[in-house]
Amino acid sequence: MENIIEVAGLRKSFGRAVALDGLDLVVRPGEVHGFLGPNGAGKSTTLRVLLGLLRADGGRAVLLGGDPWRDAVALHRRLAYVPGDVTLWPNLSGGETIDLLGRLRGGLDPARRDALLARFELDPRKKGRAYSKGNRQKVALIAALASDAELLLLDEPTSGLDPLMEEVFRRCVDEERDRGRSVLLSSHILAEVEELCDRVTIIRRGRTAESGTLAELRHLTRTSVEAELAAAPTGLEALPGLHGLETHPAGEGTHLRCEVDTDRLDRLIRALSAAGIRSLTSRPPTLEELFLRHYQDAEPATAAAPAAASMPEAAR
Amino acid sequence: MSTAEAMAGVPELGKLITRRERIRLPIWCYALLASVVGTAYSFRQLYPTPESRARFAATVGRDPALAVLYGKPFDLTTLGGLTAWRMGVFGSLLLAVMSIVTVVRHTRAEEEAGRFELVGAGAVGRRAPLIAVLRIVLGTQLALGVLIGALLTALGMGASGAFLFGLSLAACGWFFAGVTAITVQLTDFGRSAGGLAFTVLGAAYLLRAFGAGSGANGPTWLSWLSPIGWTEQAQAFAGDRWWVPLLDVLGTALLVAGAFRLARSRDLGGGIFPARPGPARGAASLRSAGALGRRLHRGNLIGWGIGLLVFSAVLGAIADSIAELVGTSQQANEIIQRMGGQGGIVDAYLASCMNILGLVVAFYAIQSTVRLRTEETGGRVEPLLATGTGRLRWAAGHLVFPIAGSGLLLALGGLAAGLAHGGRSGALGRQLGELVLAGLIQLPAIWVLVGLTVAVYGFLPRATAAAGWSFVGLCILLQELGPLLRLSHWITDVSPFATVPRAPGVAIPAEPVLVMAAVGAVLTVLGLIGLRRRDIG
Ligand SMILES: Nc1ncnc2c1ncn2[C@@H]1O[C@H](COP(=O)(O)OP(=O)(O)OP(=O)(O)O)[C@@H](O)[C@H]1O
Ligand SMILES: [Mg+2]
Q1: Can you tell me the ipTM of this complex?
Q2: Which residues form the ABC transporter domain (chain A) (predicted)?
């Protein structure tokens, strides 16, 4: 079966500001695809182009086998969307909004709707403005999840949800995957991505930086190595792919610390064992480190050591 | 709360407001100054001598329709008296609208948009936005009043009358700033706060119209219940009752004090009337963009309908007594004959009423057209367009209201005027038909304005609201000032309302009506084509 989403070389500018600068993105059938990138990288813009709300300046975008701009209405009946910034009609209740959006998409399953309301613990009788941010988000989520769409486009769907509700959301997405739906999930929450996504695409400054399974991405990055050696190692300087090497004498031996490109790990270990390994710890990069590296590369000027779990802001 | 605390943040907010109003505020000022001074100057050119003014006073000055709709004449033998008569009500309305719109924008509308939360978390008193905007509005209007006094004095009018006239206009603006300070505390939404204040303004206009339309034995005191009536009753250049504008000042003080009290007993973002919960499920009918449009516009249309029903009924009810206002003397009889007899006077008056009705409904039409843009910038279009709803279908759900809803309001207005008038004067059937038609022929002119606004929305979405309101404002100014300033037809005919037949009482030619309908339709289609091709958001 062909891909659910195929985007190649997508470009979009707003006046002089370039939002998308040759973006590539492929979402395969039945997969949950993570879509990551610093603030302002172009994630929401990509989703809007895919929804036919924005007209691309160049490149190719195919959604469910159709043209997102030309076939917008027909395609929309087959997908559901949760916007990044949910605003509701102030004089409609949450329940009315859910029903309306579902029906406009071609109907929703009342049993599923009620089950979701219960799971997300949402009171559907409140009027738009009476909802808290998280509850507004739930209204949009329930409307999307209660539909029979083949594809879910979710733009930071859990922003504002409490940890319990986030857990509910994750289980819902898992169920969607089991039912054969495809999901494109833009998110800043790495634990969520790690748990849910089969493949991820990282973008920065409107361009695809990296795309693949998490295992593949890890492979492309560095492993940190720490070792106690019997003697000072030799010839390390000549090794390719070695970074941040630090050695200092410790007792009779040497303490070493460095990072190495994961595909060069083998040669480093051989060099170290020649010096006699007393102890060795090697750690694959955490997801945080992986992303921080990408995010920071985007804007070296602002790369000043952000807290590990939070994302650095890319300058506009 | 101490004064210092209450005033915290007021200067900063004031600067923010001035910056955000840097285009609109000068436009308001210019519109008022240009109308008043332009009119005064034009009167000076047209009626330079006391004899020419006396002639004018004895003819046009005795047209009762003008007295009811535009202002009661007191002394038309001086240039100042002429200006105060012709511009008193108009200027008061202009400043009142300026107050309502500006106060709502910087208080309730800011809260509604959630922006005040951002500001309010700083060292800013709860009442700071209200204080800040009142300072700017009241200050600007006071300055305008003084400026008008100075300019009219410079044109050679009596200084006392000139300054009294300027200040009584400003005082009316003040009063409605006070009214709006109250209404923004009462409701949840900027739109309803504005609606409530405009309702008060409409009532004030009707009270003074009814007072001015009553014969000597009628309830002329009604105009004393109206702040717009106070501008007339100050009798600038004709007795100079300096104490009358003090009523406005007192009223403003009471209203603002009341607003502060109310503000203390409500939450940020909430109104005095709490929001009620809604249904847990959407009604079976809520299943299309059209249904959503009806749901969103329903309340507003009903409100306008009730308001215009009363408005037109009162104006219609005045129609009967209008010929009496001319008087019963020999001279009065001559005037009546010249104006086409009793029937002619009544028809001319009703035609003016229908024309005003058309302009008022134009406000509704633009308000509901601009809704397209506010829905879009509010982010409420995206989720809809991400469903099986196309852009045209979505837009149509809203545009039904300016296009057909306006027609409904016009027909309703004509019907109410006809019932109130025909009900008292007999010949009900004929009156009803004629007046409903006289109301409805304003519709094509409204379609032109709607079409223009939709066209701007399609191609220059950011300018939608500014363009729409400018079109209405321009039509009103051209209509009010065109004849006074003796503007050429080339200029006044820019307003589609200039081409509307002045029914009842005249044959209605099909051509201008059809041409305007076609222009409106073409512009609307053009705008929709633009909407289909552009980015949303
Ligand atoms: N309507 C618009 N007009 C002008 N610039 C825009 C518009 N929409 C987006 N941009 C710009 O395009 C760039 C990409 O924005 P986008 O919203 O797609 O980022 P994002 O990846 O979703 O960021 P975030 O993580 O903050 O949601 C930004 O620089 C933004 O300022
Ligand atoms: Mg975004």
Answers
A1: 0.83
A2: 5-230
